[in-house]
Amino acid sequence: MAKVIVVTSGKGGVGKTTTAAAIGTGLAQRGHRTVVVDFDVGLRNLDLIMGVERRVVFDFVNVINDGIRLNQALIKDKRTEGLYILPTSQTRDKEALTREGVERVMEELKQEFDYIVCDSPAGIEKGAQMALWYADEAIVVTNPEVASVRDSDRMLGIVNSKSRRAELGLEPIRAHLLLTRYDLDRVERGDMLRLEDVVEILAIPVLGVIPNDPLVLHCSNLGLPVILEPKSKAGQAYRDAVARLLGEDVPLRFTKPERRGFFDWFMRRSA
Amino acid sequence: MGRAEAEAARPTEAERPPFQVRGSLHTLVTLRLLEPDHPALMPQLLRKIAYAPDFYRDAPVVLDVGPVAARPPIDLAAFCARLREHRLVPVGVQNASPPWLEEARRAGLAVFGEGGHATAPNPRPAAVPVARGAAHTVRQPVRGGQQIVATAGDLVVTASVGHGAEVAAVGHVHVYGALRGRAFAGIEGDESAMIFCDRLHAELLSIAGVYTVAEELDPALSGRRVVVSRRGERLVVEPLD
Q1: Is B70 near chain A, with CB under 8 Å?
Q2: Do residue B141 and residue B234 come from a single domain?
Q3: B234 shares a domain with B140
Q4: Is residue B190 part of a domain?
Q5: Residues 177..206 of A with a Cβ closer than 8 Å to B: which?
Q6: A223-253: b or e for each residue (b if 16 or more CB lie within 10 Å)?
Q7: Which residues of A touch B159 (CB under 8 A)?
Q8: Which of A65, A157, A201 minimises the CB distance to B4?
Q9: B179 and B235 together in one domain
Q10: Which of A8, A202, A271, B94 has the lowest tally of Cβ within 10 angstroms?
């Protein structure tokens, strides 16, 4: 049974698209046929981050409104087997999406894929509500700072009330917390909220904690999902998150200060 | 854009009639006019709204002109315009005499029957006897932006109430979790209503119109299990442990 997962946050700039690209790629790496759908109509970024922007011909909006077939719009990822991208339109706006249109495309994607990862726009308005409308699960991307946590809380309220599942009285959307840009030094100094504080406020299970990692930006600029960069700690943390999403029990990493190695100790002593 | 949307809309138009007529029952706020010309009317009304702004925001209001039906009518259109400025939506009049009816028609207001209300002819509403017991139980966290109102009896929340969330009840408000948003007890004037919570981090507490904001709360009570009650014109927050 195909699963629809929305990557959402409320606040902008917290790492939704990076997460959608990484999780989508990770699911495909694990052998699941996966499509990542860009719901951010007008601010197309997903294809850029996944490095397929030069191959976009038709898009999600064309499929909904202009009689273009899904297969004409889907872009096959060249790096990862079983991964597809459904890009969005740069020239239209969120009004181009309708519930009926989204439902029709989602139903069609469900025939072909195991996982449909929806990259939501920021905000809580129509665009974000369209992205979560059809979801079975939600990944709520949050940074360890007060504004982001509050917006995530607000978003969770909408996830619980404005989805297809909520309106039909089905089992509610399963929401997961993904804490990104987690900087242990700043957490230790008290500049950032601790994982425990965020969990206490949002009261949803933790899917993963992604450490702050300069390689994330580097990969974005290259159009490479960070999960494909083996040296990246963020990439490793995303792999763990994918494993948890698939029901595996993987301990959290990068949430406690690393023990200093012998070399550090030696350097310190001789300094 | 139009074209694609119009095409999508056409088949539904053909299948479905453009409207349905249905009866429905609603609870409306009644504003009983005792001294409609009194200069303090608006300021006092605004103060009342300030106690529970979300309860009154865009609320449909019926003007009960019974007490002043014998007097010549006031300019209802102008009066309604002032109410609308403060996001009250006057929809009709009640207990109107013929001259008031005429005035109401001119102001575009509907005419309501007598209605079943229990108000005291006193500008300061006396405490209304309130049904106790949990009329409304919420087991999910109340998230920011959500508003939950128990329109009869108590409200029980067995989870946390987030920042920017609002919980309100005619009777008590119980929160078995952290209270980080706003809580309103006794929203119909029951001064004996109370607010209970496991961890106090509230943005605002209000009982029967008397309120206090986070800044005014004793920092020593932050995060504590407390009961909030009203004594006279102020709120008292006491730890429960």
Answers
A1: no
A2: yes
A3: yes
A4: yes
A5: 200-201, 203
A6: ebbbbbbeebbbbbbbbbbbebbeeeeeeee
A7: 203
A8: A65
A9: yes
A10: A271
Strand-pairing partners, residue B184, are B168, B206
* Tokens read off for B132: 């106790």
Whether residues B149 and B101 fall in one domain: no
Do residues B170 and B220 share a domain?
A: yes
Which residues, including other chains, have CB under 8 Å from residue B231's CB and lie 6 or more apart? none
Same domain assignment for residues B167 and B73: no
In this model, does residue B42 exceed pLDDT 90? no
Check whether residue B143 and residue B228 sit in a common domain.
yes
Q: Which domain holds residue B163?
A: 136-239
Please report residues of A whose CB lies closer than 8 A to that of B142: 157
Asked if A203 and B141 come within 8 Å (Cβ–Cβ), the reply is yes
Residues of B in contact with A201 (CB under 8 A): 160, 162, 178, 180
Could you give the percent of chain B with pLDDT greater than 90? 42
A-chain CB neighbours of B4 within 8 Å are 65-66
Q: Return all residues near B114 (Cβ < 8 A) that are at least 6 apart.
A: B94, B95
| Mean pLDDT for the stretch of residues A20-46 | 96
Residue B118 lies in a domain: no
What mean pLDDT comes out for the span A14-43?
97
Residue that is last in its domain, among B111, B127, B150 = B111
CATH of the domain at B83: 3.30.70.260
Inspect the interface and report whether the beta carbons of A66 and B4 lie closer than 8 Å: yes
Tell me: the pLDDT tens digits for A260-269?
A: 666 666 666 6
Encode pLDDT of A227-246 as tens digits.
999 999 999 999 999 999 99
What is the sign of the dihedral through the CA atoms of B73, B75, B77 and B83?
A: negative
Which residues sit opposite A5 in a β-bridge? Answer: A117, A137
Distance from CA of B81 to the nearest CA of A (A): 31
Using CA atoms, how far apart are residues A39 and A36, in angstroms rounded to an integer? 10
Residues B174 and B213 in one domain: yes
Q: Does B144 touch chain A (CB under 8 A)?
A: yes
The per-residue pLDDT for B121 is: 41
Can you tell me the ipTM of this complex?
0.73
Last residue within a domain, chosen from B111, B126, B144:
B111
Q: Please answer yes or no on whether A96 and B165 come within 8 Å at the CB atom.
A: no
Q: CB–CB of B4 and A203 under 8 A?
A: no
> CB under 8 Å to A93, separation ≥6 — which residues?
A41, A42
pLDDT at B119 over 60: no
